[in-house]
Amino acid sequence: MESEDEMQDAWAGTSDGEFVNEEEDEESDALASDDDNDESDYGFDYSNVDDLHPSSRLPQTNFTILSEKDIRQRQDEAVSTITNFLSISPADAGVLLRHFKWSVSKVNDEWFADEERVRASVGLLEKPATSKRQTQTEMTCEICFEVHPFEKMRAPRCGHYFCETCWTGYIHTAINDGPGCLTLRCADPSCGSAIGEDMVLSLVSTDDQQKYMRYLLRSYVEDNRKVKWCPAPGCEYAVEFQPGVGSYDLVCKCGFNFCWNCREEAHRPVDCETVNKWILKNCAESENMNWILANSKPCPKCKRPIEKNQGCMHITCTPPCKFEFCWLCLGAWTDHGERTGGFYACNRYETAKQEGVYDEAERRREMAKNSLERYTHYYERWATNESSRAKALADLQDMQNVQIEKLSVTQCQPVSQLKFVTDAWLQIVECRRVLKWTYAYGYYLPENEHTKRQFFEYSQGEAEAGLERLHQCAEKDLLTFLGGTPTSSFNDFRTKLAGLTSVTKTYFENLVRALENNLSDVDIPKAAAKSSSSSKASGSSKGRGGRPKVGSSKSGGSSRSGEESTHWSCEHCTYANTTAASSIVCVICNHARS
Questions:
Q1: Which residues are catalytic?
Q2: d(Cα 74, Cα 216) in Å, to the nearest integer?
Q3: Which is nearest to 194 in space by CA: 108, 92, 112?
Q4: In the CATH hierarchy, which fold is given to the domain comprising 275-349+366-522?
Q5: Residue from 575, 574, 585, 579 nearest 564 by CA
Q6: 532-573: per-residue pLDDT in tens?
Q7: Residue ranges per structural domain of the chain
Q8: What are the RING-type domain coordinates in residue numbering (predicted)?
Q9: How much is the pTM?
Q10: Given its phi and psi angles, is residue 49 left (phi above 0), alpha (psi -120 to 50 degrees) or beta?
């Protein structure tokens, strides 16, 4: 696998978590075997996060959570493997692994393909350089030009001796400069010999040792294509991604659910490109400019934007400009008076508007206002569902820690029989997350694709209505059974809540599937209509040509019967159902086929 883009292409269309797509890309099998031979799996107990994240409730084998201890263990295993396999020192093995981004297989391939070239590129000498200076009792350091006892002189395998003080200062500066100290070379400018970990740690202070080891630890993650740090604030876990199973949505041991590809919050079914555009728009200044254009006008003299905050049309710009003008026509106020309609109207503006003088400015202002209103519509609903999800997550935790025991005592039910309540809250949390991102999807859905937009808004509305029914039942109806005595209606409540959970899950499965397919099912009726119209046109032309129209009618009828054999349109929601999926009931609205 040459790049993350190739891995992303191989993973397009797969799914994970609560909504499972069992189709897998055939190319993913080939990509999965790349660079995997040298890496071992580490198990992860999901019991700590299953109760909080619905997407983690199903077994996931496409990622592994790594603690700092796990990372160091993997580094030690990789160094040991290279040391034994290539018969080199651990320090040299570490240099090789850092150069080849901790890929054991890559080190082996390159080493046995051309050992000399690899040694030259990483700065490893095959044999230590011999020097007559080793017989001297004193030496002059070529950096500070002071004479030191030979015991105070140090040199890497290249044989360039410098005093320990100069070496310490050289390495200290490199460590403070950042992770580049991991590829440190000899202090002699003409030499490219690598400085090993053993020499670095033997010369620097404890603080510098800790910094160096921290850089070394982080290099395993930051240089490795398959490992990334969890983006949650304060989290020190890393996540290793294994191509071949599941989607990009991962859940860390800290409980944070994120997308492997873009490292943003998990956003299925919306793709990473849409998420990045949406987040950038939320943070950009473009909406501020749209607000200025929609709600202010520039001063005719100094061009500063002015917001009208009173009823009078007589506007005075702030100092030092102090220009007085009419809000309607932007003309000088000295030209206005009783003859122009008084202080609250300006017929000159209406006349100019009819003549087209202000058409362009008004058009731009109207476009900015419409754009701002449209963005506000989607952003408010996106943010509202995020806050609702956060509240639902808090309610879920309260239910698990406090309320479930109380409900068990009140209704004389074992906790194991109350799992349907927890399942309902888990479904609510996950559906709020999905619903939130559908508004980002809707914002970027092209305006000219009216059929797709209608189908999207219908599917989104049905899913949202189902979610609201479930949320209300779990949040309000449950309160009746938390206090007082056991009631016989609790079993009815159990049936109702479990049924709403199942129905809501189905609604969102259909919504997610449709969005991940880019609403491609909407194009099927269009294709069928085009085929039908073309066959009708063909039959009509044959009739005019003197041939019997009956024959053309049979041809058209045959075409339509072929289409009906594979697809049928629901009269309630207009969804194009496939006969392979369901020939009796609509998979979207569950209405029977007429």
A1: 312
A2: 12
A3: 92
A4: Four Helix Bundle (Hemerythrin (Met), subunit A) (1.20.120)
A5: 579
A6: 555 554 444 444 444 444 443 333 333 333 434 566 766 665
A7: 69-229, 275-349+366-522
A8: 137-350, 141-185
A9: 0.61
A10: alpha
